[in-house]
Amino acid sequence: MKKYLLIALLSLSLPTQAITIDEVYKYYSPDGEAAFDAERGKQLWNQKHTAEDGKIRQCRTCHGDDLTKSGEHVKTKKVIDPLAQSANAERFTKLKKIKKWFKRNCKWTVGRECTNQEKGDLIKYLIQF
Ligand code: HEC
Predict the structure, then answer these.
(1) Cβ-Cβ contacts under 8 Å for 32 (sequence gap 6 or more)
(2) Candidate from 105, 108, 110, 121 with most ligand 1 atoms within 8 A of CB, to mutate
């Protein structure tokens, strides 16, 4: 019985453990939230990038215009759960997930990885919904 309890406790402390938004800010800057600007995040979120095929790419391309509603993946057509934390409490609580998707989505949308500054700005913008 003890063994199972130990395993249960260990699994709680794995890296997938939920983190607070302040910890996310701290991860991207030693100054935490103060380092980031929601207005800059908004601009990047809405910025239009022209891909090699001439098509416009934006964060909205998959996440949609209303962050409290589901989006649709532009290529796979799969439903993407709302990005707004008010509609999806799991959002921005797993650092591993945030890192993975920032990497993929910035590369695809912006054509390069986002900087830590940009990531923090984006989170500060997105957390308002
Ligand atoms: C090609 C489609 C696509 C585009 C464009 C896109 N995303 Fe995403 N995004 C996804 C998918 C798929 C997921 C993971 C599925 C899910 O979490 O529901 C995701 C998840 C995320 C997450 C994870 C949030 C969390 O904690 O659960 C963040 C942050 C994110 N996207 C930010 C962005 C930003 C910023 C942009 C624009 C630079 C962007 N996305 C553009 C498809 C896209």
Answers:
(1) 22, 25, 26
(2) 105
Mean pLDDT of 114-118: 98
CA distance to 51, 54, 83, 105, per residue, from 111 (Å):
8, 13, 21, 9
Site of tokens 């997930």: 97
The answer, yes or no, to whether residue 59 has pLDDT greater than 60, is yes
Cα 64 to ligand 1 centre (Å): 11
As a whole number, mean pLDDT of residues 45-56 equals 96
Pocket lining: 63 vs ligand 1, CB cutoff 6 Å = yes
The mean pLDDT value for 34-51 works out to 98
Longest dimension (CA), the chain: 61
Say yes or no: CB of residue 67 within 6 Å of ligand 1: no
Residues 84-110 pLDDT 10s? 999 999 999 999 999 999 999 999 999
